[in-house]
Amino acid sequence: MSTRSYAVTDSITMLRRDLKKILRYPTSVIFIVGFPLLFLLLFVYVFGGALGTSVANLGNGSTSYVDYIVPGLVVMTAATGSLGTSSSVNVDMTEGIIARFRTMAIFRPSILIARVVSSMMQTLTSMALIFGVALLMGFRPTAGIGEWIMAIGLLALATFALTWLGVAFGVAAKTLDAASNAPFPLIILPFVGSGIVPTESMPNGVRQFAEYQPFTPIIETLRGLLMGTPIGHNAVIAIAWCVGLSIVGFLWARKNFNRDRTQ
């Protein structure tokens, strides 16, 4: 077999292992879906009246608050997925299974490749569930087939970037607690952006931070694709952020994965 064939075969084998692990321990799936779902229910049914009025007064184009908040919470699902990825990668790194894999004649990058692919499949499935619940709650996107395809592509790209960051956190952390806590700011950032309320309603300082952090252009682009609100230059900025975060996460994960942890 050629080197490429070995790489594909080993990656598929590792992917099968990771998927079986996800099915055996579904708590990570429950967390990835449950966290954004909890906020969806909380903000729509408890705070939706007050926040919906504020959103409507700023003329964002949404006819109901659930239409406004869903894109932000779907993007948050990618962030919660990175936390689960970080924890599971760290468990493998610290419990010796990776050290055992390193002694075997396998394509070493297949370990990380499989983890990224399995985590993306898990997170994208969770996003679909969030969309399903949101539709039951009254979410009514105006997107056509083309806009949905572009929205799915954007979510896949954002998930890819945040998953690589999660892998990097998990490989670099020396303990499970550190791996679990490191990605948590990624979950908070959609709140300090346009995920819950428009940035125009925020005071100076906070508003500037919200407008220039990576999640806001991603959320605004997704909202524009699904709800028909203006996108402007947000799409280009969102793609640039995703590509940049992917590169940072990949290089950081590769550097620490190749490091001898016994030193």
UniProtKB/TrEMBL annotation:
<keyword id="KW-1003">Cell membrane</keyword>
<dbReference type="InterPro" id="IPR000412">
    <property type="entry name" value="ABC_2_transport"/>
</dbReference>
<keyword id="KW-0472">Membrane</keyword>
<dbReference type="GO" id="GO:0140359">
    <property type="term" value="F:ABC-type transporter activity"/>
</dbReference>
<dbReference type="GO" id="GO:0046677">
    <property type="term" value="P:response to antibiotic"/>
</dbReference>
<feature type="transmembrane region" description="Helical">
    <location>
        <begin position="112"/>
        <end position="136"/>
    </location>
</feature>
<feature type="transmembrane region" description="Helical">
    <location>
        <begin position="178"/>
        <end position="197"/>
    </location>
</feature>
<keyword id="KW-0046">Antibiotic resistance</keyword>
<feature type="domain" description="ABC transmembrane type-2">
    <location>
        <begin position="27"/>
        <end position="260"/>
    </location>
</feature>
<feature type="transmembrane region" description="Helical">
    <location>
        <begin position="231"/>
        <end position="253"/>
    </location>
</feature>
<feature type="transmembrane region" description="Helical">
    <location>
        <begin position="68"/>
        <end position="91"/>
    </location>
</feature>
<dbReference type="Pfam" id="PF01061">
    <property type="entry name" value="ABC2_membrane"/>
</dbReference>
<protein>
    <recommendedName>
        <fullName>Transport permease protein</fullName>
    </recommendedName>
</protein>
<dbReference type="InterPro" id="IPR047817">
    <property type="entry name" value="ABC2_TM_bact-type"/>
</dbReference>
<keyword id="KW-0812">Transmembrane</keyword>
<keyword id="KW-1133">Transmembrane helix</keyword>
<dbReference type="InterPro" id="IPR013525">
    <property type="entry name" value="ABC2_TM"/>
</dbReference>
<feature type="transmembrane region" description="Helical">
    <location>
        <begin position="22"/>
        <end position="48"/>
    </location>
</feature>
<dbReference type="GO" id="GO:0043190">
    <property type="term" value="C:ATP-binding cassette (ABC) transporter complex"/>
</dbReference>
<comment type="similarity">
    <text>Belongs to the ABC-2 integral membrane protein family.</text>
</comment>
<dbReference type="InterPro" id="IPR051784">
    <property type="entry name" value="Nod_factor_ABC_transporter"/>
</dbReference>
<feature type="transmembrane region" description="Helical">
    <location>
        <begin position="148"/>
        <end position="171"/>
    </location>
</feature>
<keyword id="KW-0813">Transport</keyword>
